[in-house]
Amino acid sequence: MSAPHSVVELASVTREYPGVTALAGVDLTVRRGELAAIIGPSGSGKSTMLNVIGTLDRPTAGRVTIDGHEIAGLTDRQLSALRAQSIGFVFQQFHLAEGVSALDNVADGLLYSGRGLKDRRHRAAAVLERVGLGDRIHHRPAELSGGQKQRVAIARAVVGEPALLLADEPTGALDSTSGKAVMDLLNELNATGTTILVITHDQGIAESLPRQVAMLDGRVQHDSDHPDHSDRSDDPDASTTQMGAAC
Length: 247
Known about the structure:
This protein has helices at residues 46-53, 76-86, 102-107, 117-130, 146-158, 176-191, 203-207, and strands at 6-17, 20-31, 35-39, 61-66, 69-70, 87-90, 164-168, 195-200, 211-216, 219-223. Strand 9 (211-216) and strand 10 form a beta hairpin. The chain has 7 helices and 10 strands. The radius of gyration is 18 Å and the shape is globular. Helices cover 30% and strands 26% of the residues.
């Protein structure tokens, strides 16, 4: 049973691939309205964590509950519906359709909502205004700067008002000024109630957020929300077999 007011719950989550343990008994709870960073070097397990939380991958063992839904009991079709309704994704490389306007890129975030095109565009225009691109709604990606493209991608991710926004290295392809503007926008969205997890290797970005969850070798090494949490990999009662870690 999901704890009240939590959007993400991982309980003893493990993800194994042949010869590699990408996640090793991870416990994590993210409450509604939180803004947190999952930080770690390449190979730490943070990208696998993103895939599991985003329901793009299923764990080998453990329990994953997203927005009150335990994913083990869901079919692939039900998982797709959960992603469409409850999770927004922002990626480093934007993933915008080059041939269409910012308005229709954002409206595509509502394709599976059952709404008509007019309603989707109306909602998209409102969100683009909210992220500071009200004067760029008819511009195509090639006519936008990198920072503006990421704002379009964020607008697309939140237009359906998901319970959770997952931002994977959202400033990785941007210069420092555009990157700061994107982080300021994420903070503004969080201030209005959006729950946001930022996956990053950038210590500066992580430290600017209210909570930091540090990953190493597939385990939570440190969680600023639980400062007494420590990596149990050196505990003789914990598992001592770690074949490797995936990013």
